[in-house]
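Hi P.,

Sorry for the delay on this. The queue was packed all week, but I finally got your sequence through. Input first:
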Amino acid sequence: MKNKTTLTVLALALAAPAAFAGSIFITSRGGGGGDLHQYSSTGTLLQSISGNGLVNAQGITIGPNGNLLVINEAGANVLQYNPATGAFIGTFATTNSFPQPIVVGPDGNVYVGADTSVQKFNGTTGAFMGNFTSGNPLSDITGIAFDAAGNLFVGTADSGSIFKYDSTGAFVSTFVSNNPTLSTGMGSLLFNGVNLLVADTFGNSPAWGNQILAFAPNGTQLPDFAGGANLNGPDGMAFGPDGLLYVLNYAGNTVVRYTAAGQFVDTFIANGPSSMRGIVFVNDASPAQTQTPEPSSVALAAAGLVTMAALRSRKRPQ
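Then the structure:
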């Protein structure tokens, strides 16, 4: 009975939205007319940031140096901004052409998917450390994600395939091969526990995708995590400090939220910028130490088994 009660509490914790003290940054491919947007924790637009050469913003993350790192597709570089004010700081790194996704790896360095390669940069200085992946040709990289074991998963939109590399960058296997739903143009990748979520951004019929696919650790396709009318070209995905999954609708100009179990919660932003690509959460009290816990950790905190203060105090690896 005790175990059943605990599971019930955990499920309710995941399903219940909770406010957080911070702001949200979203990128968009707006052609330079304000491609970086700051929202309050309740979804109110605070400012849209333009200039500094930012044209067609893509992925976004908080770097180990504590700054916002934003992919600038047109400039083939990574720009950095103050995570509290949005003030421009400078260029963090120069990439290959057509950069899109960006993540901080378990080693504290920054990884960028740039067309045919995943490039590695020093997490503090932005110094180029070489092309990370080897042993398998890549093209049109639209999503990258590390699993808990340090393996890197790379999604390629032109083939609908996802490839797995070990922690050294060596090719391991083809995780998903020529998936027909994803071959028209997949979006971002994100781990939900041990399962990999993949956004179906560009569809065939309808013209925009309306699914978030899920894959087990062995690559087996699971029932869709989410789908239907609430999704219209889903792309950027991130779990918020409230434990909910935030999904950017590239074509629908909305931000919608789901529980970690895939249950639709609400439309968080109803009239967002067009062509949204990336999203990141900033802790206003300590922007440099922003850390979004795993959904399971949020549930444990809500059940009283661990404190959110302890979770938020964990720093990214340096």
